[in-house]
């Protein structure tokens, strides 16, 4: 198993110990299926899928969106979490009604993510220098709260988690820009269909017995999704 070092609440290493929503799911699945995982760490999300393609890992976690482009290179488990993209902005931009209202503003994103392309397509100025890259979502949010940037594109649940944790009133979600639902999943090496089936079977079992709901509520204090 390969994960990012810092991706709370999905996965993170604290005092040398791994924690997070995806870690808890995997541990619950492992308990159901009688399997175990050895965890490895990469510093950037862009290194996760190459680790599977090169055979250095069997499964990857860290807020990985399931999409057709990635399916060409890796397999995925069934969805583990539903989310939508979201636009978090400095409070002064709360009345924005479209990307056009935000184009050219200073935008924080992660390189190689789905939001990187979104920023380039809809928010980049002529030279693209208004797009600022950070390795972690926390760095993106922190620099927005510190007024170093004005816009963050990201996952609604992860951005919401950071706002809850930091109690800031300096940033708000843009309500007038909506996005379709997306799914996170565990990514797996393309040829490892046996492990893919084990993960999917274990995921189904922890949904059925209520374990998934308990884990979800630990991080978001809401009713279980799906």
UniProtKB/TrEMBL annotation:
It comes from the Bacteria. GO terms for cellular component: membrane. Residues 2-222 form the Ionotropic glutamate receptor C-terminal domain. Residues 1-223 form the Solute-binding protein family 3/N-terminal domain. One of its GO terms (molecular function) is ligand-gated monoatomic ion channel activity. It holds the Pfam family SBP_bac_3. Keywords: Signal. This is ABC transporter, substrate-binding protein, family 3. It comes from Kingella denitrificans ATCC 33394.
